[in-house]
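Allow me, if you will, to draw on your knowledge of protein folds for a short while. I have a record of one protein: its chain in single-letter code and its fold written as discrete structure tokens. Could you please explain, in whatever detail you think fit, how the structure tokens follow from the sequence? The record follows directly beneath this note:
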Amino acid sequence: MVSRGHKRTAMYRNLQLLRSISCSHSRRRKASVLLDVSEYIQGLKQKLQELNQLQVAKAQKIIDYDPMPKLKVEPQEEGFVIKVLSERSCQGLLVFILEAFEELGLDVLHARVSCADIFSLEAVGNKENNQDTRPLDAHMVEKVVSQAIQNWKEVTQKL
């Protein structure tokens, strides 16, 4: 008798647990609870399959993606607007770009940078007032910043 009572109590506890996990509103019928649990499990399987497909698609996108960030330099009246955009985070790229600005003798007047999920830089810079008298045009700025991006790419590929 004792073991039958223990089994019944254990089954009741397990049924209550299944009911709470699946958010089943069936109170009495065991079959209804089991059907609700079965539907819940099917839903979880479907969500898992969708997540796996997203993960595979994301991995494929990373493999297919050309990691070279896009660069655009726009001349302004007394300086340049430099825009660098990449669809992925580019750890360490900002340092290479700032070193390129220093090499060019550019003062950064305003900058907006995001390095979280993507890399995005928009900087406004103008020529420093110093003894360096060489002319600075958008093509020169683009060439030096592009070389900095290439140097960054070579360094990160070695790691």
Observations:
- The CA atoms of residues 72 and 143 lie 11 Å apart.
- The chain has a mean pLDDT of 83.
